[in-house]
Amino acid sequence: MSGGAKLNVRVAEVVEVNALIKRFRFVNRDGSPMPAFSGGSHIVVEMDDSGTRRLNPYSLMSDPEDRAGYEISVRRDDAGRGGSLYMHNHVKPGMEMVISYPVNLFALDSRARKHLMIAGGIGITPFLAQIAQLSHLGGKFELHYSARSKPLGAYMDRLTQAHPDRVHCYFDDEQQTIDLGRILSMQPLGTHLYVCGPKGMINWVLSTAEKMGWPIHALHHEEFLAPGTGKPFDVELAVSKKTITVGTTQSLLEAMEAAGVDAPYLCRGGACGQCETNVLRCDGQLLHRDHWLTPEDHASGQKIMPCVSRFEGKTLVIDR
Amino acid sequence: MTKTEFPPAIKSRPVYGVLAPRPGALHLIVADGDGAAAVTDLLAKASDRASMLASTHIIYTPGPDGTDRSADLAALGAAQCYRAPTIPTLLPRLQRVLIDAHMGTQFYLAGTEGLIGQAERDIMATGFPATDIQKEHRGSTVRRVQCVHCKGITENVATDPFKCSHCGLNLYVRDHYSRRLAAFQGVNIDAEDPGQIPQSVVKFK
Fold first, then answer.
1. Predicted structure pTM score
2. For domain A6-104, which CATH number applies: 3.40.50.80, 3.40.50.150, 3.40.47.10, 2.40.30.10?
């Protein structure tokens, strides 16, 4: 079975954090402790949305030392494909669900002398777990967290109360912006930078840091992409000897799964590399949207990440 | 003299590139012996040489073969240029500079493996990623070797095998390298048949 081992859980708690965000707590159905994880890990939540199977990645935000349960926060995206709406509208306490084991693609580098964290909106979630972890181990950190407004700044109260001298909050509606150049110029040697938030923010932080001479191996970011929508297209699966149609709101990976093909995956957000697939024939345009393949891979037309990327054209044959 | 070319070896053996200017608030250059030529080549590549020099700190020491090109470096006109008499006296200055340095510092190491390795070790200890430190080998290829038996380090090893300067064992010089120790590993070559020692040859010059 692709996607690694699964955990059979029960929803223990659903909390409305603010107008857009709900928090969900999962516990093992048999009452046993959850597997250990490190700050920055995510899980993939499986949803059965009236016949449509949805698998969305969410960062674990709870304290890694809390083995009694896992917590995630989900921001409602009314224009999205439906995963967050399902979580908001249908998931209730007591419900049984299936989630993946935790996977960490955004781990703290423990060799760092200091961890500089930059969060935008719901991008705060992995940092909550990392900050809990660092608080236990005594690691040094500094957080700059920007939200649209005070009411939408989830968990700001608990963060500023626990770490008043390390947490800095910014609000778009009060025209407050992170003074990135100043912050980046003041960090001691051996600082590692972590950024999680909207795509524009990630690009801004990474490109500013690189221009200021920050080494690329001290720069860490995480962004889960939703597969996105597009025109329907046909794909020939050479190994499975099937031809499938990928629908407008479906990803290539989801279409393969719907056709009963057990394709590998892990993050389902273009980040981890697990679903990398060779392209055997392509008469048309591969629409790459992942963060995994190199620009050379993208240009070669030999590989595709079915979790987020699409195709437009006449014929696509993949090695799956 | 240009960049040293080494034969292919095991993965553990360090590899070196060619120094190239990168953006940064401080350019910290550590070099010895013929590494000075790599430094002048580096600055010749700078798109804005004057501004790079204005934020450059050079720490230099003569090479193990006596090569001293500190005058060439002093003539460049960097913001700071310091000549230490030896590697052991160069390292405390580097360590002091690292205490106050910020992210945005670019590191350029040039010269022999002993100097490059020890500077890299001290920079790495701050948490700075080792893979982002630029290194170019120039000049002497003598090695800094740790005796894996007594743990003593012998500098400037030219022959293989050689006699450990601490415990006196006859050591075979491996390509196996420790970044933490900044040293190649030397292993007793006549452990099973004491006295059966292959002819010592000059391998590193």
1. 0.90
2. 2.40.30.10
